[in-house]
Amino acid sequence: MPKETGKKVIARNRKAHHDYHILDTWEAGLVLAGTEVKSLREGRASLRDGFALIFQGEAWLEGVYIPEYTQGTWTNHTARRRRKLLLHRDEILKISQKVKESGRTLVPLELYFDGSRVKVAIALAKGKREWDKRQTLREAQDKREAERAIKAKQFL
Q1: Which CA distances in Å does 18 have to 53, 86, 114, 126, 153?
Q2: CA 63 vs CA 6, 52, 135, 146: distances in Å
Q3: Distance between CA atoms of 103 and 127, rounded to whole angstroms?
C-alpha cells in the first residue's frame, strides 16, 4: 500500500476567527487510540468547544468531539476525553508563558492528517469583544461590496 502524502483536513474551527484575535499558531501531534484514528478517517470530528491547556509541564487538548467508531467494540474510546498534545518542551514553556498573560487562551484551529499522522493546529488567541466582532463583520461586508463593484465595472 503506498504511503499517504499531503494534508487532508478533517475539521476546522470556523468560530475561532470570529470569537478571537489569533496571535500565534503551532502545529502539534496528538496521542490517540486506534478507534479515534478510524473515526477521524471517516471525517467526523468537531473542534467547536475545544481548547488546549498546559498542566504540569504537558499540553492537553480538551472538549474536542471525536465520535465513537461505529464498528468499535469494548475498546472504543469516549467521545470527549482529554488528549495529550505532542510538543517540544521549549515550545510548551514558551506557550505557557504567553498564556499566563491576561485574556489569552489556546484554541484549536484545524484538525488534519499530515501523511498518516493526525495533527492539530493550535493558536494563542485573545478574546474579541462584541464591538470587535461587529467591526470584523462590517469590514468583510465592505470588502465584498467593493469587489462586487469592481467586478461590475469590469463587465461594462
Answers
A1: 21, 27, 26, 11, 31
A2: 27, 9, 29, 39
A3: 7
Determine the Cα–Cα distance for residues 69 and 65; give it in Å rounded to an integer. Answer: 12
- The length of the chain in residues reads 156
For the entire predicted model, the pTM comes to 0.76
What is the SS3 assignment for 24-48?
Answer: EEEEEEECCCHHHHHHHHCCCCECC
Cell numbers at 131, concatenated: 464591538
Give pLDDT, residue 1.
Answer: 53
Query: Would you say 35 and 140 are in contact if contact means Cβ atoms under 8 Å apart?
Result: no
Strands 83-86 and 20-30: antiparallel
| Interval 47-56: pLDDT, tens | 888 889 998 9
More confident residue, 58 or 133: 58
Name the 3-class secondary structure at 149: helix
